[in-house]
Design brief:
Layout (H helix, E strand, L loop, with lengths): L4 H20 L6 H24 L6 H8 L1 H15 L4 H21 L1
Helix pairs in contact: 1-2, 1-5, 2-3, 2-4, 2-5, 4-5
Length: about 110
């Protein structure tokens, strides 16, 4: 069984997600570090959702819509982060859930 390039990309993204998650919750770190890794988590969430939604055939509209709904979770996380104005565990968890939703959706829907 040969590994597809898309699967290898997903493995790299999951590894990046794990590293990003660790640094998002690093205690007593510099606020800039938390901010950088929060936005990196948002970018990974968008990337995973985009790959998940565009990897589906065009005739599976309902599953494509379900795939794009993962960004709603990330958007709520961004809103919570902006409202708090500083590091917020709830916002970090929401961004992480959005990435997990997209990655799990790829393996379930494809």
């Amino acid at each position: 069984m040969a590994l597809s390039p898309l699967f290898i990309l997903y493995v790299v993204i999951v590894f990046s997600f794990i590293v990003t998650s660790v640094f998002m919750f690093k205690p007593k770190g510099d606020e800039r570090v938390h901010l950088i890794f929060f936005w990196l988590g948002v970018a990974l969430s968008v990337l995973v959702t985009f790959i998940n939604a565009t990897a589906l055939p065009a005739e599976r509209i309902d599953q494509i819509i379900i795939a794009w709904c993962g960004l709603i979770i990330a958007a709520v996380g961004v809103i919570v982060r902006m409202a708090a104005g500083k590091t917020n565990a709830v916002a970090n968890v929401l961004v992480m859930l959005s990435t997990v939703y997209g990655a799990a959706g790829y393996f379930i829907l494809n």
